[in-house]
Write a structure and sequence with these properties.
Layout: H1 2-25, E1 33-36, E2 41-44, E3 49-58, E4 64-71, E5 78-83, E6 86-87, E7 90-93, E8 97-106, E9 114-122, E10 125-133, E11 141-145, E12 149-152, E13 158-166, E14 172-178, E15 185-190, E16 197-200, E17 204-213, E18 221-230, E19 235-244, E20 250-253, E21 260-264, E22 268-277, E23 283-291, E24 297-301, E25 304-308, E26 313-321, E27 329-338, E28 343-353, H2 356-380
Parallel strand pairs: 2-10, 12-19, 21-28
Antiparallel strand pairs: 1-3, 3-8, 4-7, 4-9, 5-6, 5-8, 9-10, 11-13, 13-17, 14-16, 14-18, 15-17, 18-19, 20-22, 22-26, 23-25, 23-27, 24-26, 27-28
Length: 383
Amino acid sequence: MTMRTNYFLLLAILLGVIPMSYTHANDSIPKSVILYTPYTKISVSPGASIDYSIDLINNTDQLTNANLSVSGLSASWKHEMKSGGWSLSQLSVLPKEKKTFNLKVEVPLKVNKGNYHFVVYAGNAKLPLDVVVAQKGTYQTEFTTDQPNMQGNSKSTFTFSATLKNQTADQQLYALMANAPRGWNVVFKPNYKQATSAQVEANATENISIDINPAANVQAGTYKIPVRATTSSTSADIELEVVVTGSYDIELTTPRGLLSAEITAGDMKRIDLLVRNNGSAELKDVQLTASKPVDWEVTFEPSKIEKLTAGGTTNVTATIKASGKALPGDYVTKMTAKTPEVNTTAEFRISVHTPMVYGWLGILIIMLVLGGVYYLFRKYGRR
């Protein structure tokens, strides 16, 4: 009976030992082998690249040789494990030591907003990780600028800084174009070099400078310039706004450009004038005044121009009345057209002549004097 009991006891021991020895022989990963990273749940945008640094820690007294794998990621989520510049599928760690490897996960561009869970395995050790995608992916092109509006005069160069982002999975060659008003000039400078196209790698960005020069005769106002970056498969637009404040320039002249006239003392003379707006901004309340010789009169019709558009002209008649006491000679009359923003002055040379009656009167006096001398000579000359 005792021998039978000992036999069963020995058999039970043997049955218990054999499975334990078999398990150790197959080198399963002990429970004291763990995976660790501090970043177990992160939030990213579509198209982001996540680079995890993960420690495989061996707390046992045995060498650990662990197979590495990732579970739970769909095929569109590309991933790779590397260490020391090598791609990994298995990692060996000495007792009481740790080895660090990197896990790179590429979040796809075309992805829905939400929480994505996956697990990293090293043998039986596992490390659950979560990635929160903060917004829905677009899988398209973005064309943006931080400052879409600029203001300046008509001779300014308006330089905008834009960013072109290729959010597709392929390299793209974008044609750059603008729909500007006639006479305007738009120049694109990808990476500060003038060009009409820009090549952008997948999920990369390109800085583009856009120089805009208004037309020479542009009027003051607000102008919208649509700009597009396009390929056969994707495109993006931005709308730039240029506010032209305008330049002020006014001219006062005559239809023939002649700034001289003749007048008889005491008479009136009408002179046709042209008031021209040579600037790019509208002029309002144009006043006409004159600086004249003493006892002269100068009037304008009209004396005030309510509005004069850029590039426009208005006819004005100036009436000059010379003083009746004016002596023959040249006189200067200054005529001025002015607004609160700008003014101009034209100098007119006015030649004054005496009336014909004075000429005839002079001749008559001379004849009377000569006649008197002749009479006296006849009467008293022979004595």
